[in-house]
Amino acid sequence: MSLNRRLRPNPPSQRSDSDDLGILNERILFLVFRSMKWDIQALCSTASVNHKLRAIVKRLLWRELCAHSAPRMIASLENAVPSGRIGGGWHTLAKLMFFCCGCEPTRNFKVSRPTPGHFVKSSRFSKTSGQSFLTKRCRGDLLYVSDPCEHQMGEKEDDLGIYRGVFKGFDKSKTRAYLIGRRVKLEERVRCPYCGAPEWSMTTAGLVPKSAARRLGSHHGALEYFVCVNGHMHGSCWLVPLSSDDNEDDEMDGSDDSDFDDNDGGVRRIGYDDRTATNGSMCSMGEEVVVDGPAK
User: Fold this and answer.
1) pTM here?
2) Residue of 151, 141, 100 lying closest to 290 (CA atoms)
3) Are 129 and 185 part of one and the same domain?
4) Is 81 inside any structural domain?
5) Whether 290 contacts 145, CB under 8 Å
6) Residue partners of 127: CB distance under 8 A and separation at least 6
7) Sequence-distant (≥ 6) Cβ neighbours of residue 91 within 8 angstroms
8) 167 touches 140 (CB < 8 A)
9) Do 125 and 241 reside in the same domain of the chain?
10) Residue 178 and residue 105 share a domain
């Protein structure tokens, strides 16, 4: 759907004083936020003013924010939904892109204390990383996964990694078909932190490959993640401490480790340099980049 078709000019007969100032003119709002580089906190503030602005932001501006931040990823996700309706809505996808959901203890993953969610300054979503979270029976699916957001938990505990992601065309995915075909039950006490929909535990479903731990820099069995009925994914893991020797090895190794086999060994911890790149560009591992979000 083109931008001109999404924009709805206000009929002259329905204009109020505030309309004359342009606050409810969709084209003006679009140009203002484009000049602000789609600042998400400003969008949130605008959506909270009244129901009219909230409707405009929900229908038009959240999508534009997502497309500006990760154009290739959004184009790929939209190709799977001809109607242009992303599962859960564009506002939930924007939240997933710029908000670390935190971590609560679950039956399969215990933490000493809950970790609150927060906005993130930058994120990188990778379909290469996403392949590491798919078992061999589901390898035809396309999943974008972020680098883990690292949280210090204490001197006697490893750092906690919190990550999130989204499936392309989840309704027709092999992962969903397997979950439904095996009659895996939805979690009773866990809901998607982005859209509020019911979720499956991939640990309970037996759909956590060893390659996921290696991609995150964790140990197999030291992580858990969930997928909701709208295809949003989020999870937590314990990160293996990274020694200086590991850093040197990573700098010398420029190979692409996207093709994991479940029997391969080794752990890869994602370093700081992996997380930065130019907005909308592709890094050496073919990952989409999202940068310049709000500060923590």
Assistant:
1) 0.77
2) 100
3) yes
4) no
5) no
6) 73, 76, 142, 143, 144, 286, 287, 288
7) 57, 58, 62
8) no
9) yes
10) yes
Residue 95 lies in a domain: no
Structure tokens at 23: 């606050």
Please name the residue that has the structure tokens 């203890």: 105
What average pLDDT does the segment 128-147 reach?
94
Tell me 282's DSSP state.
Answer: B
| d(C-alpha 291, C-alpha 70), whole Å | 9
**DSSP notation for 66-106:** HHHH-HHHHHHHHHT-TT---TT-HHHHHHHHHEE--B---
Neighbours of 20 (CB within 10 A): 11
Half-sphere exposure of 144 (CA within 13 A, CB side): 23
Amino acid at site 80: A
Please check whether residues 262 and 131 belong to one and the same domain: yes
Give the range of the structural domain holding residue 224, as residue numbers without chain letter.
Answer: 100-290
177: which residues sit within 8 A by CB, 6+ positions away? none
* Percent of the chain surpassing pLDDT 70: 73
Q: Which of 51, 69, 87 is the last residue of a domain?
A: 69
The secondary structure element, H or E, covering residue 1 is none
Tokens standing for 129?
Answer: 């990383």
Task: Note whether 262 and 172 are same-domain residues.
Answer: yes
Q: Are residues 169 and 254 in the same domain?
A: yes
**Is residue 79 situated within a structural domain?**
no
CA dihedral 231, 172, 256, 292 (to 10 degrees): -40
Q: Is the pLDDT of residue 275 over 70?
A: no
